[in-house]
Amino acid sequence: MDSAKETQEKLRGPARALRDEIPDVFRAYGELSRAAMADGELSDLTKEFAALAIAIVKQCDGCIVAHVRNLVRLGATRHQVAELCGVAIMMDGGPGTVWGPRSLAAYDELVAERSTDGSSLNK
User: Fold this and answer.
1) pTM of the model
2) Could you tell me if 72 and 114 are in contact, meaning their C-beta atoms sit under 8 angstroms apart?
């Protein structure tokens, strides 16, 4: 996986082009996402950890970056992300040992970026 920033940059243009072609699908997906992540019995942090675990198992670099970015915004610690990676490894086996470390590296990168430029990670 590229760095978190490189992954975001590589996916931004193609995602916009596809969204322009099928806006109703992207609009519906956005509504589904907002509904799934809305306030409820599970905390925002719990929902983002679940999403990251699935992203690791599905081996989706764009999803990993998106959900790690959200976890950083929500104040997740590095060790919490590492423990989540351990659960993903347990559930996914060998591939989890590749995608889990990529998730932790994305966490480190995004926290460092936030620390150095004071950004809100809204990119």
Assistant:
1) 0.84
2) yes
C-alpha of 94 from chain center = 20
- Total residues found in the chain within this entry: 123
CB distance 14 to 43 below 8 Å = no
- Structural domain containing residue 89: 4-117
Note whether residue 112 is domain-resident. Answer: yes
What is the C-alpha separation between 52 and 45, in angstroms, rounded? 10
Tokens coding 120: 């809100």
Total domains in the chain come to 1
Express each pLDDT in 60-115 by its tens digit: 999 999 999 999 999 999 999 999 999 999 999 999 999 999 999 999 999 999 98
On whether residue 122 sits in a domain, the answer given is: no
Q: What is the CATH number of the domain that holds 108?
A: 1.20.1290.10
